């Protein structure tokens, strides 16, 4: 599997890059503090299923990597909260009761889960925040560079307009208010868009649900008028699908540029036929595999390896200078589908180029 090398320079208010850790270091169980052998149990808590990435990529990639790191002696105890914060708290308590060795947590509600993180800490179970920065005494954090995600979305949306005017009306469909990532995406996108276009309507979309985005978009169309909406900022691909449905229901045939994130298969196909302008491609193998490496290294006491994997630092509302790894991202458009999701073996051409999209694939020279 080929990895895409991306050079970026980005600044995020919550992130402080730090040069602590050892580049390309490797560790052994003798590096520092004593730890377990290969018979580790890793708890993995993912937030929802509406976004297809979690079941399709994150979990299976993470599980496979844990097995490879532990000579197939390590196990993953997995649970998905299906966007229910209370359910996730119960799932985490069960993992604490089961005495797993480490928990990798992608929080439904980053604030509400803080008590559960503290309970894990009190039980001697380290918690690694995955993809979303949970509050409470977490041991480390791994995610994509969320500030860069919003910047890439905002810049690419402006590029799609050619020469944007301040009077151009934009609708912003932001993510869930309970997700700290959504706040970062929104702030970074606004830093690109404000003063260059008019934000006519802006929504924080409950639970990231496409149907909520569709309802919000229908309201925006009624308020602004379909013909006056020049572009739509959508924080992810699932919501972009709902936005497209709302525009089509309003009789719009020439869709405005729409952004997205996650490179979902349906979104890649919409990009091919011009129903969505772009998505943000994030290498799930890089994130999931690195998270597995961090979790196993933490449990096995491989401190040098753990430090090498967490050279960045982030701040949460409750804790400062949290060891972290920030994974870079890239804008996915019609022009680089082959160099991103196909090159990284996320999809095969046959997955994308079904009969419905055969003509678009031929035009894009996808074979």
List keywords for this structure.
367 residues, eight-stranded mixed sheet, disordered N terminus
Structural account:
- There is one protein chain.
- The chain is an alpha/beta fold.
- Helices cover 39% and strands 17% of the residues.
- The chain has 13 helices and 13 strands.
- Helix 1 (53-69) links the parallel strand 2 (41-46) and strand 3.
- Helix 2 packs parallel to helix 3 (114-122).
- The chain is globular, with a radius of gyration of 21 Å.
- It starts with 14 loop residues before the first strand and ends with a helix.
Give a brief description.
The protein is 39% helix and 17% strand.
Number of helices: 13
Mean pLDDT: 91
Helix content class: 25-40%
Structural class by helix and strand composition: alpha/beta
Radius of gyration (Å)? 21 Å
Distance between the termini: 19 Å
Could you give a short account of the major beta sheet? 8 strands, mixed
What is the strand arrangement across the widest sheet? 1-11-12-6-5-4-2-3
The coarse silhouette is globular
Strand content: 15-25%
| H/E element sequence | EEHEHEHEEHEHEHEHHEHHEEEHHH
Which stretches are low in confidence, meaning pLDDT under 50 for 5 or more residues running? Answer: 1-33
- Number-wise, the strands total 13
Strands, helices and their partners?
Elements: E1 15-17, E2 41-46, H1 53-69, E3 75-80, H2 85-97, E4 102-105, H3 114-122, E5 127-130, E6 140-144, H4 146-160, E7 169-174, H5 180-193, E8 198-204, H6 210-224, E9 229-234, H7 237-249, H8 265-273, E10 279-282, H9 284-299, H10 303-309, E11 312-314, E12 322-327, E13 329-332, H11 338-342, H12 349-352, H13 358-363
Parallel strand pairs: 2-3, 2-4, 4-5, 5-6, 6-12, 7-8, 7-9
Antiparallel strand pairs: 1-11, 10-13, 11-12
């Amino acid at each position: 599997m080929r990895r895409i090398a991306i050079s970026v320079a980005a600044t995020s208010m919550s992130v402080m890059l730090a040069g602590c850790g050892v580049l390309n270091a490797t560790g052994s169980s003798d590096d520092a503090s004593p730890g377990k052998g290969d018979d580790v149990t890793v708890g993995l808590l993912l937030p929802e299923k509406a976004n297809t990435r979690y079941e399709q990529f994150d979990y299976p990639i993470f599980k496979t990597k844990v097995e490879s790191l532990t000579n197939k002696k390590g196990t993953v105890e997995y649970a998905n909260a299906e966007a229910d914060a209370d359910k996730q708290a119960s799932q985490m308590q069960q993992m604490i009761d089961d005495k797993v060795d480490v928990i990798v947590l992608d929080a439904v509600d980053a604030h509400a889960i803080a008590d559960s993180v503290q309970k894990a800490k009190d039980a001697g179970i380290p918690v690694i925040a995955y993809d979303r920065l949970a509050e409470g005494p977490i041991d480390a954090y791994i995610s994509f560079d969320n500030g860069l995600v919003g910047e890439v979305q905002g810049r690419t949306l402006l590029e799609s307009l050619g020469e944007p005017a301040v009077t151009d009306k934009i609708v912003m469909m932001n993510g869930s208010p309970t997700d700290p990532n959504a706040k970062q995406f929104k702030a970074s996108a606004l830093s690109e868009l404000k003063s260059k276009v008019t934000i006519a309507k802006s929504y924080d979309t409950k639970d990231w649900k496409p149907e909520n985005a569709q309802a919000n978009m229908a309201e925006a169309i009624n308020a602004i008028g379909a013909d006056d909406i020049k572009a739509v900022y959508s924080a992810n691909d699932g919501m972009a699908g709902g936005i497209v449905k709302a525009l089509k229901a309003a009789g719009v045939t020439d869709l405005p540029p729409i952004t997205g994130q996650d490179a979902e298969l349906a979104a890649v196909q919409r990009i091919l036929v011009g129903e969505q302008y772009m998505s943000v491609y994030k290498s799930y193998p890089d994130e999931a595999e690195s998270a597995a490496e961090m979790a196993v290294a933490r449990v096995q006491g491989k401190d040098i390896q753990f430090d090498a994997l967490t050279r960045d630092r982030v701040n949460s509302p409750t804790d400062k200078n949290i060891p972290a790894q920030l994974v870079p991202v890239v804008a996915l458009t019609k022009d680089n589908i082959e160099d991103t999701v196909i090159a990284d073996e996320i999809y095969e051409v046959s997955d994308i180029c079904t009969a419905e999209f055969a003509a678009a694939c031929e035009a894009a020279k996808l074979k």
